[in-house]
Write a sequence for this structure.
């Protein structure tokens, strides 16, 4: 039996074993001005929507090219599929 882990295609960074990338995204959040940061509820709501999206691949939105956690942290950003999504 193979010990290789099958990569998760529709996962968030925090669901993957990529601590360095998640650390980088978290550092990005800390650099955002406080008034620009999404609160925890908004952040989690956005991630929930992204988790169900067919364009999520390995923590990256295939439409925007950004890590979804990074985009979700910034309340001035919107889903590339439309502002009515988030």
């Amino acid at each position: 039996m193979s010990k290789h882990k099958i990569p998760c295609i529709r996962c968030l960074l925090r669901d993957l074993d990529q601590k360095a990338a998640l650390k980088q995204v978290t550092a990005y959040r800390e650099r955002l001005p406080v008034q620009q940061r999404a609160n925890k509820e908004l952040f989690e709501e956005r991630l929930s929507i992204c988790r169900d999206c067919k364009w999520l691949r390995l923590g990256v939105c295939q439409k925007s090219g950004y890590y979804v956690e990074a985009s979700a942290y910034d309340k001035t950003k919107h889903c590339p599929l439309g502002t009515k999504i988030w």
